[in-house]
Amino acid sequence: MTSTGRTRHTPTGPAPSFPTGPAPSRAARRTVAAAVAAAMLAALGAACSGKANDGSGSTAGDGVKMGPGVTADKIRVGIATDLTGVYAPLGKSLTQAQRMYFEEVNAAGGVCGRRIEPVVRDHGYDVQRAMAAYSEMQSSVVGIAQFIGSPMVTALKGRITSDKMFVLPNAWATTLLGNRYIQVTGTTYDIDMVNALDFLTKEKGIGKGAKIGHVYFEGDYGESALNGSKYAARRLGLTLVEQKIKASDNDMTAQVSAFKSAGVDAILMSAGPRQSASLAGVARAKGMTVPIVASNSGFSPQLLQTPAAPALLKDFYLASAGAPIGADLAPVRRLADAYGRKYPGQPRDNAVVNGYTNALIFTSALKKACQAKDLTREGVITAHRSGGVYDDGYGTPMEFGHYDRPATRKTYILRTDAKALGGLAVQRGAEESPEAKGYRVPAGG
Amino acid sequence: MSTFVELVVNGVSMGSVYALIALGFVIIFKATEVVNFAHASLLLAGGYVTAVLHDDLGFLLALGAGIAAAAGAGALVEVLVLRRARVENHAVLAIVTIGVDIVLTTELTRRIGTEVLSLGDPWRDRIVTVAGVSVAETRIAALVTATVLITAFLLAFRHTSWGVAMRAAAEDGETAALMGVRLTRVSLGAWALAGALAAVAALFLTVFPTPGLDRGTSFAAMKAFPAAILGGSTPPPARSPAA
């Protein structure tokens, strides 16, 4: 098949075939009914033609094999994000950073002579909407460079595998490991907690027999983190005091009371930014001065503009695989400047680095696939999984050859700093503790 | 033991804040037989106005403005939407309030963006310690305020002509109208009052130990919904012996 034939066949999603509605004289209700029916038909049509495309890789004039989402002049890349739900601040930074990256790539000539076209869908951190968004773009994108939420990605695992969809989730639960098509970037939450306890014992004077409090969300995120803290506590001779909370719990008074009466010497925090702010605020107000280390989702720089700021600036740390946006690395500094120019007044947080570097990882797989003249989905994932250590210069070298283990076991310990860009400065550079080295990560499969 | 007392005081205090929200649901339901799904966005509106104005006006005036704004928004929904709807089935109106909620929440979250806003309350993160029991001042303030407001409401419900009109409207709207009770006024008052109570609740949902008002605050408001549904189908005070 020629490239033009291919272009005609490639579905571009339901949007173009969406009717503008029947004659205006009809009742509004009928218009709505017709539109709904048409949308369903269009979605059905897209799904059908998508299936027809999956197996049949065509070849373009330049000899590159093409699959879904790739045409002679375009590569469509999916972004399944949260722009309206609880992680909207995160989703906004990630998506803007990725758009900026793809624009830069396109300005430099694109990939394989093709422009990259991001296809952004908002799921509002809702599993059902995420599944609908996935179904809608499934047949028309080559892969997904941003997928927020481990519940969403976990729910779609089976379809991701059968569609051979290369997915970069913005979630770090261990349940996402063990799938060839899903690439968790950086560490997983458990590794971060193992390294956090190493930091506490080596640099914060926490010795054998000490008690460590751990507040964690129920579900994949918190329980992944708890696995790590349990393991490291056992290895280091520490006692863990667990406090499980729900995502809707915003007041950490009860947890702090429990930690205070247990007499903990440090606190681990695997929850959201609001919970961190509450925990730090209550703990410091009650005179607890123990160090607090949060998982990488447990902080946002906006908190430093609230009354919680003084508490968050006292002995509060973040365990993260990625370098912070204020890091003293030339590529990160360039990124921070470019982002600030493109989106003036927008918060520059670590999600900017995370989104941008994930887009870079995705694009480098596309480039490798282009060299192998195979831009089918299978070709892209094969390209991604080939090769040794990946290092883009943004502070987090990773290995993508295996998928049952995290891509790295090195964690940065960041400290809150009101003067630093993004509110965080590096306290301890990326390090892999002996405990993290020996830790067996339970992969989800 | 002190932990137990702390938890009880905190729990009762939070419960009283949710009671303020639930009371708003119930007032509207009793006066108009509409389940108000827009309550969470009224709460967010009140909180937002307080948060934006407290730097310029000071806390108390800003809170007053927030309460007035939420009451006004509630009254506006009543005047512009409910009063004009000529439907038999109140479930339709309930669904209309979902639409109002979506519009209001979308606009407010757009304005709030990614910020976490402080309401500028005077209690900050101070904690009172009595005999080993430490409780945040905000929790005590919440408990006192909610108690005062709820008591005032119950007294008004029982003893003022407004309260009598409201009870009559709740008992049997048609008969009340024949007896000279102006149902539109009762309904308008109910929406405004519910909005005002929601704005007060917004304050205590966002003060210490929570970091402040953000786009997620309205989710917390929905926690009071089951309370209103489970406990709210009958108003507790002053039911007439004949009923």
UniProtKB/TrEMBL annotation, chain A:
Gene3D superfamilies named among the record's database cross-references: 3.40.50.2300
Biased composition (Pro residues): 13-22
Keywords: Signal
Domain Leucine-binding protein, chain residue ranges per copy: 74-418
One of the Pfam families matching this protein, by short name: Peripla_BP_6
Stretch list, region Disordered: 1-26
Signal sequence annotation: none
InterPro entries: Leu-bd (IPR028081), Peripla_BP_I (IPR028082)
Domain of life (superkingdom): Bacteria
Record-linked PANTHER family: BLR6548 PROTEIN
Family according to the record: Belongs to the leucine-binding protein family.
Protein name: ABC transporter substrate-binding protein
Species of provenance: Actinomadura yumaensis
